[in-house]
Amino acid sequence: MTSQSNGVKKSAGLRQRLEAGPLICAEGYLFELERRGYLQAGAFVPEVVLEFPEAVAELHREFLRAGSDVMVALTYYAHREKLRLVGRENDLERMNREAIRLASEVAAEGDALVAGNICNTNIFVPGDADSARQVRAIFEEQVGWAADAGVDFLLAETISFLGEAEIALDVIRQSGLPSVINFAIHKNGLLRDGATPAEAARRIADQGADVVGLNCIRGPATIMPHLKAIRAAVDIHVAALPVPFRTTEREPTFESLTDPGCTHHLPAGRSFPAALDPFTCTRYELADFAVDAYAMGIRYIGACCGAGPHHIRSMAEALGRQPRASRFSPDMSKHYALGTDPKLKPSYKAFVPDL
Asked: What is the pTM of this model?
């Protein structure tokens, strides 16, 4: 394909695009905006939506040019509990509506869907009816604003409790919008209320989700075994959005990564979240992941916290696309020493072993 999207007309919705597949979804807004100096690591509240909306719009635009089929509204952690934590609860509705507006405006510049976004609340406690009520109220607010703004589908993500995901799905289904439910799997490989990822995915599929999968927390190497189990367990579409970090069997999550070679002080002794640079995957590793996921029958493919537009572009190209940003994909033929152009000086090419 040579088009920006998967060849489906702009009016097509989530289900139609997945049937035509693959659908590419860029995430990682919080980490990328933190790197650019517009958002604070730690609370990771997207205050940038109100304070620097032009930065959010520009990142949406860069992901669109890189080949993303989805503009995810930056409402991750823009929920009542998080805003209360940072003293901005009065900005709750305004932040959500502005985030959706920014995503929608940029999506209209290309062939992209708009996803409303809800996420882990950090207050859910299994078996606690009061926490379940609070979680439902949080989701109902955000889903209501997203539906009112006319988003194409709802994404519930980075959820590590099956019970919390079930509440999210129930609220989304009541809106009548398509749903994508993504779990986050921590070190022990289970949901925090005990289900395996495959068991949880099967439950969510049986309850009517359109897409179920995994996002965040694990890199390509350690997320893939769980994706294989989910793909085998469900008949619906599966989503795969790892973090672009080299997690290992010993340290399977980006929160658990340690850098023995780091000689300077790390807060709390952890590389997460602001010293993960030594573990970052190359764009080519993300491209390989995209190809492997697609070969497994996964159609909703992307990358999460830590991903930049270059990762998304390489994933899109590996899946047969030529997005607008491909104009600037690497071409070393004109490099002064490593190039192949016959007009290059032979003496510079001969110097390659000494570079």
From this structure: 0.94
